[in-house]
Structure formats: C-alpha cells, structure tokens
Amino acid sequence: MAQPIIEIRHLTKTFGTGDTAVTALEDINLEVRAGEIFGIIGLSGAGKSTLVRCMNLLERPTSGSVVVDGQELTALTEAQLRKARRSITMIFQGFHLLMQRTVLHNVCFPMELSGVPKARQRQRALELLELVGLADKAEAYPAQLSGGQKQRVAIARALATDPKVLLCDEATSALDPNTTASILELLKDLNRKLGVTVVVITHQMSVIEEICSRVAILDGGVIAEQGEVEDIFSNPRTEIGRQLVYPSCVRIAQLPASRVIRLAFNGGSSYEPLIASLAIDCGVKVNILGADTRNMDGRAFGTMLLGLPQDPGEAAKALEYIRCQPNITVEEVEHHA
Predict the structure, then answer these.
(1) Among positive and negative, which fits the CA dihedral 315, 316, 317, 323?
(2) pTM of the model
(3) Can you state the angle between helices 147-158 and 118-131, rounded to 10 degrees?
(4) SS3 track for 76-121
(5) Which 8-state DSSP code applies to residue 295?
(6) What angle do CA 184, 185, 189 make, to 5 degrees?
(7) CB-hemisphere CA count at 13 Å for 317?
(8) Going by C-beta distance under 8 Å and a sequence separation of 6 or more, which residues neighbour residue 111?
(9) Which candidate, 320, 328, 333, 334, places its Cα nearest to that of 284?
(10) CA distance 301 to 231
C-alpha cells in the first residue's frame, strides 16, 4: 500500500469569534495516499472547498495538523509555505486564467514566479500544452477558448512546477457532460503518466465513480464516512451516504402503499438481468419504482427500489430468490406509505 502524501489530523476550521463563530470543519481526520485519485464529496455547504483550501493552507486551520509530503504546513514560515505550495497546486471551477496573457504565457506564469530561465519556461510550457492536447493553442488568448480548453490550460499551468499533488476544487462543475468526461479522462491520464496524486472535490457522485479509488463524504463539516469507492457505493452506512448514492428521483413518500424493498448491487456481473430472471425462474413480477445503477468494469453497483406483489406468498418467493443472488443485499423500506 502506498504511503500517505497528505495526512490531516484533528483539523478544525472556525470562521469568526464569539457568538457569531461558525465551525466549517470539525475534527477532520483523513489520509491521501501517494499516486491515488481521492475524492471528497458532499452537498453545498458541507465544507468541501474549505477542506481542500486547508490542504495547501490557503485557509489556515483553527487547530489540527496538515502534513504534505512529510512537511507540517502549519509550522512553516510564509517563505517556506510558498515554496511548499509548488508541490501542491490547484485548479478551480472558474479557471482563473490571466486574460491579457496568451495560453503559453499563462502556463509560464508559475515558472516566472519561481525564477525559471525564460528559455526553459517556454520549453516546459510547450511540453505541458502538448500533454493536455492544446499544442496548437499556444498563441491564443483565453477569450478564444472553450470552457474545456480553458480548464486544460489551467491544468497545464498547475503542472508547471512539477507538483506531487493536484487539488481540483469543483473543476468540472461549470462544464457540460461531454467536456466533463474529457477532463476526467485527462486527469486519469496525467495520474498514470506523471504519478501525480489527485484530490477531487465535487458534489457529483458520477465524478467520484468515474475517476476516484477512495472517497470521503463530508456532511455539515464532519466526515460522515470514507473508504473505497466500491464499498461506499455498495453499502453506504450513513444517511448522507445513502442520499448521495441512492436514486434522487425517488422519494419514499411518493411510493405506493405496497411492500417495498431496496436492493444494493455490490459488484456482481452487470450482465445478469435480475428482474427478468425473477420473472422467468419464479413467475413473479415486481414493480421497479426507481433505480440508480452503474456499470464499472463489467460489474454492477448502485441501488434499485422494488415494489413486491400484494400477495404474501408471491412477495416471499421474490424475496427468497433475490436474497439467494450473489453480490446483492436487500433491505425492506419501512414507513413508505
């Protein structure tokens, strides 16, 4: 197992003092392993952006420690911290490009600040633009680019100081689905080629499932649960976890007044048609009330809400059949009427 490159211990962040104080983060403990793509997800106001900004001390924690690549950031001087931030760079939802500079000179900017010779700046910037697929846009200006192209420039700029960690704060939230997919694929490619550790902040579970190996769920400034993405998807243990993983389009109060069960698919073959098999093998038909399933490398994850037949014998037969299937867990949904 890879060693942690980010270690956060008992981190708390409070804004304001006295009666007006607001605790944005409370007793956060997590580790990000070197070379992984780690996700942090939560609803709006959960504290995601505050947490990621504490990772490079753009926000200084009220208490607790932040260790990145063996350095305790809270113990560094301002000069030492500026140097350390070259190894833990960041991209944002809003790109933050310099509009008066060309794409090439945007990528050169961090190297200028670090005192890199101009010839080397240009050479490295062109290499990075090639890497992110924008070699032909070196002399263009940000206003001439699409949103996805701007984010690629921002990624190239973030890589200019050869960081060990790339922090992505809602980096795809402003992009359309196709562009989001291409940016996520780029991040995976850079992770493989460069070995850079990626931390993804998002409110979209689809982003987590697409790119991350492990995830932490934030809720109200605390970590509700964390672990392997497959484990969280197959068996969320908290209410916020279920809210993020289970179908958002189905509300229990909307379901008909019949017996309802929730199935969780835990990584079995995605090519086994459960509902059709139930009808063929048992002669029992069930009502699909909602589903949020996904195919990850040929394995099924996610959940499904089923309405069982009114007849107790038929319902029992369906339940027995489903419970005998591998990689599926079943629970009854109570108080659904």
Answers:
(1) positive
(2) 0.76
(3) 130
(4) CCHHHHHHHHHHEEEEECCCCCCCCCCHHHHHHHHHHHCCCCHHHH
(5) E
(6) 120
(7) 15
(8) 120, 121, 124, 125, 160, 161
(9) 320
(10) 10
**Which residue positions in the chain have pLDDT lower than 50?**
249-255, 257, 271, 335-337
292 within 8 A of 227, measured Cβ to Cβ:
no
User: For residue 84, how many C-alpha atoms fall within 13 Å in the half-sphere facing its CB?
Assistant: 22
Cα 93 from chain centre = 14
What digits encode the pLDDT tens for the residues 270-280?
545 777 778 78
Q: Which of 167, 196, 194, 118 is nearest to 126 (CA)?
A: 118
Any idea what the Cα angle at residue 34 is, between residues 30 and 36, rounded to 5°? Answer: 85
- Structure-token pair, residue 275: 């509902």
d(CA 247, CA 7): 33
pLDDT digits (tens, 9 = 90+) for 98-108: 999 999 999 99
Residue with tokens 């050169």: 108
DSSP state of 67: E
CA-based nearest residue to 156, from 120, 128, 118, 194? 128
